[in-house]
Amino acid sequence: MTIEEKERELIDEFDGIDDWMDRYACIIDMGNSLPALPENLKTPDRLIEGCQSRVWLDAELDADGKVVYRADSDAIIVKGIISMLVDVLSGHTPDEILEADLHFINDIGLAEHLSPTRSNGLVAMLRQMRAYAAAFRLRG
């Protein structure tokens, strides 16, 4: 499934939810379904700078040349947000990740319903995910 197709799935899931309290509940559910990040990967070098809550992000390049992300957060809404990003971007090549515009964030109304600190955190999460992809692309 392409990044665009994954974005479309998320947009469709949120289309039927009008109330933002229900949308937040959906985001929290997504975070709860995120596999736990092993404690040995919750290290300072994996903490994302710029997030008010603690967010850990790990990435590896699999044998097929696809980036696989793993993440966790100590805040339930933020964990849901990183869960969506991991779902959309994991399993794609570094080039696909770097070229993605990730319009779902605006399309579901997430950007306009986040506090300024959470918006900054979202930008920091995306920046770190793209930094991993760029590093993997350089490795060739």
Structural class: mainly alpha
Q: H/E series, N to C?
A: HHEEHHHH
**Unreliably modeled segments:** none
Q: Would you tell me the overall average pLDDT?
A: 93
Q: Estimate the global geometry from the Cα principal axes.
A: globular
Number of domains: 1
Can you tell me about this structure?
The protein is mainly α. The chain has one domain (3-139): Sufe protein. Chain: A (Alpha-Beta Complex), CATH 3.90.1010. 53% of the residues lie in helices and 10% in strands. The chain has 6 helices and 2 strands. The mean pLDDT is 93.
Summarize the model shown.
This protein has 140 residues and is mainly alpha-helical. It has helices at residues 3-15, 20-32, 76-89, 94-99, 104-107, 116-139; strands spanning 55-61, 67-73. It has six helices and two strands.
Describe the protein's topology.
Elements: H1 3-15, H2 20-32, E1 55-61, E2 67-73, H3 76-89, H4 94-99, H5 104-107, H6 116-139
Antiparallel strand pairs: 1-2
Helix pairs in contact: 1-3, 2-3, 3-6
